[in-house]
Design a protein that fits this description.
The chain is α/β, with parallel strands linked by helices and 340 residues long. The protein contains twelve helices and 13 strands. Bound molecules: uridine-5'-diphosphate-glucuronic acid.
Length: 340
């Protein structure tokens, strides 16, 4: 089977492609604008066809790659909240318009698709305490001037279009909603003074390495459920394998409800692990900052986001890595790089 991973050079993509490449029955291609992470992951092994390009410029190339594949895994997206507020139209261009071109090409040539969406579609917490369920929880967004929700809106509409096209028989599909994956090669380490940008782990990691302050946005009491990338990849593989069976036409949360932690708790845990891994106590302090100062006007947040993982668990998914293991594995990667 020929699998085309669009966005295979990113954090999730590089881990997923590495895993797919271990299956001798699969012929895997990756299209992305940057493949450094994937090349690092594959090392000497190779075995993956790597195609460099920018979908905004090379759409025709992407369309012909889709035509030549059996299954498309679409990971192409911007996923950084400061961009949602500073450049909302760029987010819509890539996360909606470009992705729609991919879905349309899959429709035209009857190619199956695993579409990556986001846990962000569940939106703000608004007092909801239950775990978010794929088929029962409401997808809520905030006011239009809370620009952050443009990302979730784009993702949600894309999900609905994939489901509608799949529903009329254009292709087999599944939609994946990742919940705060964490692991080596996540994002990039921001420089001093860079606000917003990558995800919280990368901000804290960079701050710890440079002995700078860790910023707790709005006090850091908001919670996230972190999923180790190794568990996440196994979950995604279960969905891919079940595309013609139990996961046909399904929306699937890939998230570990057992790994919930506040952002302040994450900061303390990372300081502790930093000391353990480097043998010296962290000198980074923790400072509170407002969401607007950190990300810009239009930022809003979700206070709590727990996945209902029962769909995946009932298909045999058993996450193995607790939060400490997940964070330690990811931090070990960056600290190891520093020592190398
Ligand atoms: C981000 C993306 O926007 C989502 O699309 C994506 O699905 C999600 O990551 C994910 O990894 O699955 P978010 O959950 O807000 O969404 O993740 P972070 O950007 O890592 O932020 C988590 C929390 O930490 C937020 O409340 C943020 O305000 C806070 N934060 C971030 C800090 O307190 N300090 C920082 O230095 C950075």
């Amino acid at each position: 089977m020929k699998i085309l991973v669009l966005g295979g050079g990113g954090f999730v993509g590089s881990h997923l492609v590495e895993r797919l490449s271990q299956d001798p029955d699969l012929k895997v291609s990756s299209f992305d604008s940057n493949h450094e992470k994937l090349v690092e992951a594959l090392g000497e092994r190779g075995g993956v066809s790597i195609i460099d390009g920018d979908i905004a410029v090379d759409l025709g190339k992407v369309q012909s790659l889709i035509r030549g594949s059996d299954l498309v895994i679409d990971l192409i997206a911007h996923a950084n909240p400061s961009l949602y507020v500073s450049n909302p139209l760029d987010v819509v261009d890539l996360n909606f318009h470009m992705n729609l071109e991919i879905v349309d090409a899959c429709s035209k040539w009857c190619k199956d698709i695993v579409q990556f969406s986001s846990c962000e579609v569940y939106g703000p917490t608004l007092g909801r305490t239950e775990a978010f369920s794929e088929d029962h929880s409401a997808l809520i967004t905030g006011p239009v001037l809370e620009t952050r929700w443009i990302y979730a809106s784009a993702k949600q509409l894309l999900e609905r279009i994939v489901a509608a096209k799949g529903g009329r028989g254009d292709f087999l599909y599944a939609i994946i909603r990742p919940f705060n994956f964490i692991g080596p090669r996540i994002d990039y380490l921001p420089r001093e003074g860079d606000m917003g940008g990558p995800r919280v782990f990368s901000h804290f990691m960079a701050a710890l390495l440079a002995e700078r302050a860790l910023y707790l946005v709005n006090g850091g009491l908001q919670m996230r459920s972190y999923t180790d990338i190794r568990d996440a990849v196994e979950g995604i593989m279960i969905v891919i394998r079940g595309l013609g069976g139990r996961f046909r036409g399904q929306v699937v949360n890939v998230g570990n409800p057992g790994n919930e932690m506040s952002i302040k708790g994450l900061a303390l845990l990372m300081k502790e692990i930093y000391a353990e891994l480097t043998g010296k106590p962290s000198r980074s302090e923790m400072l509170e900052i407002s969401g607007e100062q950190f990300y810009g006007k239009g930022y809003a947040d979700c206070d709590r986001r727990i996945p209902d993982a029962s769909k995946l668990v009932s298909a045999g998914w058993e996450p193995k890595y607790g939060l400490r293991d997940a964070v330690k594995n990811a931090m070990g990667y960056y600290i190891g790089k520093l020592k190398a």
